[in-house]
Amino acid sequence: MHEIINSLFNYALDNDIAVEYTDKLHQNTQSFADVRSRSIVINANLATT
């Protein structure tokens, strides 16, 4: 699984897409992407049910 994640992060880096993986967001906040700013925010604190 780590290989897939690393590959995706490298793809983003190679294509000028900013990625932030954070646990600072509320557990109900969805991960999101913004096309205009070419950025992705991944919520590591997202609640799983």
Give an overview of the whole structure.
The chain is an alpha+beta fold and 49 residues long. The chain has one domain. 27% of the residues lie in helices and 27% in strands. Strands 1-3-2 form a 3-stranded mixed β-sheet. Strand 2 and strand 3 form a beta hairpin. The longest helix has 13 residues.
What's the tally of helices? Answer: 1
Distance between the termini: 21 Å
Shape: flat
Question: What would you report as the Rg, rounded to the nearest angstrom?
Answer: 12 Å
Largest sheet: 3 strands, mixed
Mean pLDDT: 93
Adjacency order of strands in the biggest sheet: 1-3-2
- The helix fraction, in percent, is 25-40%
Number-wise, the strands total 3
How many domains make up the 3D coordinates? 1
Percentage of β-strand residues = 25-35%
Q: By helix and strand content, what is the structural category?
A: alpha+beta
SSE topology string: HEEE
Residue windows where pLDDT falls under 50 for at least 5 positions? none
